[in-house]
Design goal:
pyridoxal phosphate binding; pyridoxal phosphate; decarboxylase; 2 domains; globular; about 400 residues; about 25% strand; 12 helices; diaminopimelate decarboxylase activity; single chain; 8-stranded parallel barrel; 9-stranded mixed β-sheet; lysine biosynthesis; TIM Barrel; 18 strands; Lyase, Ornithine Decarboxylase, Chain A, domain 1
Length: about 400
């Protein structure tokens, strides 16, 4: 997308606004499938939590992707978007048996990550195929908050508890059709990922009727020029060969599954904001914008670094700015960042805003959540309207005080 496209969108739909480039989404999807072209049966389940708009889910469905969901609401969104329930995997954490049973009724693949629910599920529904999420005790991910496969993580069943798993499976006669892991996001070292994969292969040998192995995802995308990223092509070569060798020894061709989210949508996203005030203090020049961590919390929550460009005047001399929001607490998007000289009214674009931006937005300070726009075949399509005051109060009830 060009700066002119982004400016036109901000002019038409206002700011702040989330914008997604469908061509980048499509190219990332094709890039991943190409990397694993030597695997006979490959299934990608797009991680809905990254960006859950119905139009985006429909786009992935058109590409042939399944969905990775972590809540019953995400399951229902996928079905609403037209995705076949058989292509949806449901991997919740810490939910009740009742929610899992609701998912059974919707016809999706169940993935269980704790012994208590596994036993309850197997006792009540032994004929329903189940995938087991293991915790490989491998530390991977770019931040402790997004590393989920280590020994202190709440996610998955410890590999050291496999005797308990096998006892439950034997006692309940339940049907295990897949094993799953997810080590974390922003994986830098593919050898760490491959090490965890070996643990998954070892676990898989305990089950004789598997249909798929799910290796999660966490592939890192670049956030700025020359930034490190996961070497997808190298990972594709090494893991494909190892997976094919495993299938031969297992005696059956299994499906290799992944659950990419950020990898597919992050670089496709732009978050557009307007500069309200350029404020000079004794030590800093602040660019104060019409947004805050209610719309983009990742820099504050994860220390994420998003490139910021002045799309109104990209060719001006660069100066140092601290870009901050309008929230009543510190909401600094960037400190002393070089950006083309900013004037009040300029439109700034945060790059890599496709993943975990809108889906983590809130109404903090009673601010409205922004609109969403999908750029598709050279045209801007409004795919979520901006909230209004009526949206903010529609579920509230006023008490009549005497």
């Amino acid at each position: 997308m060009t700066n002119a496209n982004l400016l036109n969108i901000s002019s038409k739909y206002g700011s702040p606004v989330y914008v997604y480039d469908s061509e980048k989404i499509i190219s990332q999807y094709k890039r991943l499938t190409k990397a694993f072209k030597n695997v006979e049966n490959l299934r990608l389940h797009y991680a809905v939590k990254a960006l859950s708009n119905l139009s985006v889910l429909k786009l992935f469905n058109n590409l042939g992707s399944g969905l990775d969901t972590v809540s019953i609401q995400e399951v229902k969104l996928g079905i609403k978007a037209g995705v076949d329930p058989s292509k949806i995997i449901y991997t919740p954490n810490g939910v009740s048996l009742e929610e899992l049973e609701e998912a059974i009724g919707l016809g999706v693949q169940i993935n269980i990550d704790n012994l208590v629910i596994l036993e309850q599920f197997g006792t009540n529904h032994p004929d329903v195929p189940v995938c087991i999420r293991i915790n490989p005790h491998v530390m991977a991910g770019g931040n402790t908050n997004i590393s989920v496969g280590h020994i202190d993580s709440k996610f998955g069943i410890s590999i050291h508890q496999m005797p308990h798993v096998l006892r439950i499976v034997e006692n309940t006669k339940m049907h295990i059709n897949g094993v799953h892991m997810h080590t974390g996001s922003d994986i830098l070292d593919i050898d760490v990922f491959l090490h965890a994969a070996e643990i998954l292969f070892e676990v898989a040998e305990n089950f004789k009727d598997l249909e798929f192995l799910d290796f999660g995802s966490g592939f890192k995308v670049p956030y700025h020029d020359n930034d490190i990223q996961t070497d997808i092509d190298e990972l594709g070569k090494k893991l494909s060969k190892r997976f094919n060798d495993f299938c031969k020894s297992y005696g059956r061709d299994l499906t290799l599954a992944f659950e990419p989210g950020k990898f597919l949508v992050s670089e496709a996203g732009f978050f557009l904001v307007k500069v309200n005030v350029v404020k000079q203090t004794t030590s800093t020049v602040f660019a104060q914008v019409d947004s805050g961590f209610n719309h983009l919390i990742r820099p504050m929550l994860y220390g994420a670094q998003h490139d910021i460009i002045n799309v109104s005047h990209p060719n001006r001399k660069k100066r140092f700015y601290s870009v901050v929001g309008y929230i009543c607490e510190t909401d600094t998007f960037a400190n002393n960042k070089m950006i083309s000289e900013i004037s009040e009214g300029d439109i700034l674009a945060f790059k890599n805003a496709g993943a975990y931006c809108q889906t983590m937005a809130s109404n903090y300070n009673s601010r409205f959540r922004p609109a969403e726009v999908l750029w598709y075949k050279g045209e801007a399509h409004l795919i979520r309207e901006r909230e209004t005051f009526e949206d903010l109060i529609k579920n509230q009830k006023m008490v009549e005080f005497s």
